[in-house]
Amino acid sequence: MQTDPIPKVIIDSDYTTLGDDGQLGAMACQLEAEGTIDLLGITVVSGNHWLRQGVADALKSVERLGMAARVGVYAGANLPLSRNLATIQKERQHYPGGDGYLGAWASAQPGSDRDLIAPPDGFAVHANVQSRSAVDFIVDSVRQYPGQVTILAVGPLTNLALAARQHPQIASLIRQIIYMGGAIDVPGNTTATAEFNWWFDPQAAQEVLRLPTRHVVIPLDATDTVKMDKRVYDRVAHDPNKQTIVTRLFRQLNGYVSDGNDGFEINPDYTTSIWDTLTLAYLVDPTFATETVQRWIDVDSSFGADDGRSVGYREPRPGLQPATVVKRFDNSRFYDFYVDLLTRPVPVKEA
Question: Which of 162, 183, 244, 249 is deepest in the core (most CB within 10 A)?
């Protein structure tokens, strides 16, 4: 019986130590080690942090997991295609709303590595950023494996937009792009109308979503319904038989408040959405998605209250591509998948 080939995967991410991006990296490395996916590399873009910080976090991640020799880290775009701080500040002044999360824009760009913040377990010692740029790596990989590369696009889409601008022919060679981004039929998060990843570089999102390839979008519509509560949190953080550096960092960096004794404890009422890791689950098994719809998605890139807003049309529109939009997930099955991969031994063990 013929089986499907192992999917070749690029993670394009605004990487963090062990937020949802770092969790995705850890989980993907576990699947790489067991042979479920072929993780070609991690490309980094500014978003949650400026590029230099994201690269440092990604390098430490692959080193921590024992995967630095197998999974390269590639530096991409530091600035969005057409956005600046003055415009953002003006928009926030005149059009308040949302949670106001600005990601990298909330801090000055690091001038050198001395300005970076080390992960709790320190900077990478042995892992080094690859010499090829993220854009070149994406283009080269898609050309090398036509029709085989899935891109998990879980940050701003600047790297992908630049790759397609420079080499338009690669779009038809991409197997699929699975996004965590957008808010189709629900409010935004960063603003009242816009989800953060696509808001950070709306011009890039607009361009990439129009590429002639297969698009799968996991927007806030779905992620708002997949919440990590204390029960899920404890399964990752407090299983006494599955303690690793990943579970310790998870415990330290996700949802903690001080207990007043130089320790930390989670607020029992704490919940947070689970975002980027849903893309990996969908890649491995699309039946994790229990409700999907087809939409033709556009992104507003004009100044104003709707800057970065994503609109999902129910009928074809000129210039737009059809996308599979995930609305609901099988939460119980997903949590088992999520907890298992985050609590496996570290460094990663071969299957």
Answer: 183
CB-count exposure of residue 257 (10 Å: 0-12, 13-18, 19+): exposed
Model confidence at 349, pLDDT cuts 50, 70, 90, reads: confident
In a domain, residue 119? The reply is: yes
CA distance 290 to 330: 6
DSSP-derived letter for residue 239 is -
Q: Compute φ and ψ for 30, nearest 5 degrees.
A: -65, -40
- What's the length of the chain? 351
Q: How far is CA 215 from the centre of its chain?
A: 15
Judge contact between 16 and 54, C-beta under 8 A: yes
- What is the number of structural domains in the chain? 1
For residue 296, the surrounding DSSP H or E stretch is strand 289-299
184, 43 contact by CB (below 8 A): no
Residue 241, Cβ neighbours under 10 Å: how many? 5
From the list 314, 276, 351, 313, the residue with the least C-alpha distance to 13 is 276
Who has greater pLDDT, 259 or 109?
109
Residues 6+ apart with CB under 8 A from 182: 195, 197, 198, 205, 217, 219, 220, 297, 299, 310, 312
pLDDT in tens, 219-269: 999 999 999 888 899 899 989 999 999 999 998 888 655 444 445 566 666
Q: Is residue 338 part of a domain?
A: no
State if pTM tops 0.90. yes
- Given a contact cutoff of 8 angstroms between Cβ atoms, the answer to whether 263 and 284 are in contact is no
Q: Tens digits of per-residue pLDDT, 148-197? A: 999 999 999 999 999 999 999 999 999 999 999 999 999 999 999 999 99
CA 1 to chain centre: 35
Mapping DSSP to helix (H, G, I), strand (E, B) and coil, where does residue 232 land? helix
107 occurs within a structural domain:
yes
Cα first-last separation, the chain: 23
Q: Would 254 be classed as within a structural domain?
A: no
Question: Residues 6, 8, 13, 15: is their CA dihedral positive or negative?
Answer: positive
For 16, list phi and psi in degrees, rounded to 5: -135, 165
Structure tokens at 116: 């970076």
